[in-house]
Amino acid sequence: MHPLLPSLLPHFPRRDGELTVGGIPVSRLAREFGTPLYAYDAGILRARLDLLRAAVPKADVYYSVKANPNPAVVSVFAKAGAGLEVASAAEYLRARAAGGAPERILFAGPGKGEEELRLVVERGIGEIHVESREEISFLSKLGGSGGRPVPVSVRVNPKADVSGGAMRMGGQPAAFGFDEEILDEVVRDICARPGLSFEGIHIFAGTQILDAKVLLAQWARAIEVARRAEAVAGRPVKTIDLGGGLGVPYFGNEGELDLAAVKAGAAELFRGVDARVILEPGRFLAGPAGIYLARTRTVKESRGKTFVVLDGGMNHHLAASGNLGQVIKRDYPVVNASRVGEAASQSAAVVGPLCTPLDTLARDASLAPTRAGDLVAVLQSGAYGLSASPVGFLSHPMPAEVLVDGGRATLIRPRGTFEKPITELP
Ligand SMILES: Cc1ncc(COP(=O)(O)O)c(C=O)c1O
Question: Phi/psi of residue 120, each to 5°?
Fold first, then answer.
C-alpha cells in the first residue's frame, strides 16, 4: 500500500467497501456523472483554509486560483472570506464570477498583457504585482488618466536562494518579478509616479515546500526585503505578500508540512510587523480535497507485469503521471476505490487510454485485486489536476468535475462528449 494512504483515506471514509467523497460513495458519483471525473469535497477545502488560518493567524489568506480555477471551488474560498490571487484576466473573471470582491483580488504574473491590465483596473482590483518596467509605465498611465492611482506591489526575485521547493523560483535568474539588486530603483520609480500607489512587496520563491524551516526562512527574507523597501519609500509598506508554496505530500518519501513548527516560527517572525501579511497558497488549500476517479477498462498481463488500464490518464492528470516537471517519477497515492477494505495484494502499473508509455498514473501501485469495471482513485488531486493537463491530447472528452458539499454532489463542469471534441472545424 502507498505509505500515505493510511493518513489520507480517513478523509474519504470507506462505506460498504468503497471510497466516499463528502459522504457520497464513488459508485454513485460515477453512475450519476460518468467517468472519468474529478470530485472535490468542499468540507476539506474549508478545513484546509481553517488549518492555515489557525497556524498563521496574522496572515490574510488568498487562494491562488491557478491551482484549481473551477468557479465553484473558487467560490468556496471566496465565501469563507479568503482573498483570491489571479494570474490572468481570465482567472480574474472567474474569480469575479465566483463572487470574489474586486478589492480582495490580486493579480500577479510575469507577462501581463495591456488588455488584461486595463480590464482589471477598469473593473476593480485590490493590488497588481508589477513584474516589469512596461507594466509600471502602462499602469501609471492608466492610473494617471483615471484619476485613481493603481495599487501596486513589487514582486521581488530575492538574492539568497531560500526556495528549497521542487520548482525553484528565487535566488537565481528568473522571469518572475524584479531582481532584488534593483529593488531601490524600482521602488523610487513607483513612488515618483502619481498614477501609482505603492502598497508593498511580494516574494514567491518556490512551490511544494514541505520543510517548515525553508518556508520560514523565505518569509524572514521577505520581511527583510519589505524593510528595505520601506527605507527607500520613506514610509511603511501596507502589504507583505509571502507567496504560496506550502506543500502537500504526494509520494512515499514525503510527509506533511509541520504546521506546529510553522505556527511557532510565524508568531516569532511577525512580532512587530504591522503590515498586512498575505499568504497565497493554491496547492495546500485545494490539493487534499480532490480525487481523480476513473474506471478500469481492462486488466492485463504483459511479460509478468500487470497493467490496470483506465478510461482516463495523463490527459486529465498530468501531475500524477510525473510529466509536470518531476525529475524522478514517483507514484501518487492511488487506490482501488471500489474495494478499499480489501488487502492491497496486487502490484500493478496503472495506466490511461493514450497511446504513449508516458500515460502512466502509477508505475508500481499496490492495489486490491482489480477487475474491469472497478473504480480507481488518485488522491491529493484537487490542485494542478485538470487545469495543468494536456486535455487536447488524443481528443478524449473532458472529465466531469463534481463538488460535494453538505452531502450533496453538484456537477460543476459537465463531461465532454465524443461528438463535440475540444477543437471543432470552423
Ligand atoms: C505568484 C504565485 N502565487 C501563488 C502560487 C501558488 O503556489 P502553490 O500552489 O505552490 O501554493 C503560484 C504558483 O505558481 C504563483 O506563481
Answer: -70, -35
Chain segment 358-399, per-residue pLDDT in tens: 999 999 999 999 999 999 999 999 999 999 999 999 989 999
67 lines ligand 1 (CB under 6 A): yes
Residue 414, CB half-sphere, CA atoms under 13 Å: how many?
Answer: 3
Distance 61 CA to ligand 1 centre (A): 13
Distance 99 CA to ligand 1 centre (A): 21
In whole angstroms, what is the distance from residue 15 CA to residue 407 CA? 14
Domains of the chain with CATH codes: 5-40+289-410 (2.40.37.10), 42-286 (3.20.20.10)
**Cell numbers at residue 114, please?**
495591456
Pocket of ligand 1 contains residue 193 by CB under 6 Å: no
Ligand 1 contact, 244 CB (< 6 A): yes
The 10 Å CB-count burial string (b at 16+, else e) for 141-169 is ebbeeeeebbbbbbbbbbeeebbbbbeeb
Centre of ligand 1 to C-alpha 283, Å, is 8
CA-CA distance, 237 to 123, in Å (whole number)? 25
Compute the radius of gyration of the chain from its Cα atoms: 22
Separation between Cα atoms, residue 280 and residue 80, nearest integer Å: 15
> What is the value of pTM for the model shown?
0.96
Residue 426: band (very low, low, confident or very high) from pLDDT cuts 50, 70, 90 = low
Q: Is the CB of 126 under 6 A from ligand 1?
A: no
Residues 6+ apart with CB under 8 A from 36: 292, 293, 294, 295, 310, 311, 312, 316, 399, 400
Residue ranges in 42-113 assigned as alpha helix (H): 42-55, 71-79, 89-97
- Which burial class, exposed, middle or buried, applies to 224 when counting CB atoms under 10 A from its CB (0-12, 13-18, 19+)? middle
Give 172-223 pLDDT, tens digit per residue: 788 999 999 999 999 999 999 999 999 999 999 789 999 999 999 999 999 9
Distance CA 5, CA 13 (A): 12
